[in-house]
Amino acid sequence: MRIVDTFARVREERRGVVALVPTMGYLHEGHTxxxxxxxxxxxxxxxSVFVNPLQFDRPDDLARYPRDLDRDVAIAAxxxxxxxxxxxxxxxxxxxxxxxxxxxxxxxGMEGAHRPGHFDGVxxxxxxxxAGTQPHLAxxxxxDAQQLAxxxxxxxxxxxxxxxxxxxxxxxxxGLALSSRNVxxxxxxxxxxxxxxxxxxxxxxxEGERSATALETVVAIEVAERGGDLAYVTxxxxxxxxxxxxxxxxxxxxxxxxxxxxxxxxxxxxxxxxSADLGTRLDHQSVLxxxxxx
Length: 294
Ligand code: PAF
What we know:
Elements: E1 2-4, H1 7-13, E2 18-23, H2 29-41, E3 44-49, H3 59-64, H4 69-79, E4 83-85, H5 89-92, H6 110-114, H7 118-133, E5 137-141, H8 145-157, E6 163-167, E7 170-171, H9 188-206, H10 212-225, E8 229-237, E9 251-259, E10 262-270, E11 276-277, E12 280-281
Helix pairs in contact: 7-8, 9-10
Bound molecules: pantoate (PAF).
The site of pantoate has 10 residues, from strand 2 and helix 7.
């Protein structure tokens, strides 16, 4: 695996079909699942690691975001990435940038409503990564379902010739969706309220429940009973991320809640025929906890 820190070096390395796996580092099995999906489709897999300051609405959240580049290099190499692209902030935002990419509608609700400017930051950096690395395809996790819808729409609207590949959420053995932020969790039992609530809602959908309010209420009750502080729970259209009143098209049921100091998001994809994508589960402890207490 080559380690590079400029867009120009990534372009020099390009050969055959190129896949990009954009990340903010502190890698886990959710990221390596994206590398595996990329590997199956491409000749060359570029993994980028860049903690994008533009998408953080709170400076303390940016300062606290876990970082360990040596650890990331080892995990990316093990997962089969060919190029590890870790640019500096100066490389990504080399001139005082006056351009921001804004994807309206898709960014309006849920994370967009709770984290002002977040999705402009995501859309801008992903557009820059696409323009600078010129991949044929790029892999994003379903865990960030609204981000996935936003990136799809941005790539289509700006005519980037990039296929967006989505990868199912990877969960820990107990069902908690993998996130780099899980290393900060003190109250795991409360954190499990999100996934348990979503699984219960998916079971209700499988039994015929179609009302968004009913499905959302199942999740809200589970989160509250386990001690989480709910920010929102919304049934949304997978393409537009707009709230929908009933499960009459492909949708995701998304939840955000604060558990102690940690803000968590999770979702399940639900379909009108009652089927669901709940993600996949590890059968071993995540690499997130190597050398740490869980
Ligand atoms: O999902 C993430 O890790 C980030 O939002 C992304 C897509 C790498 C952009 O910074």
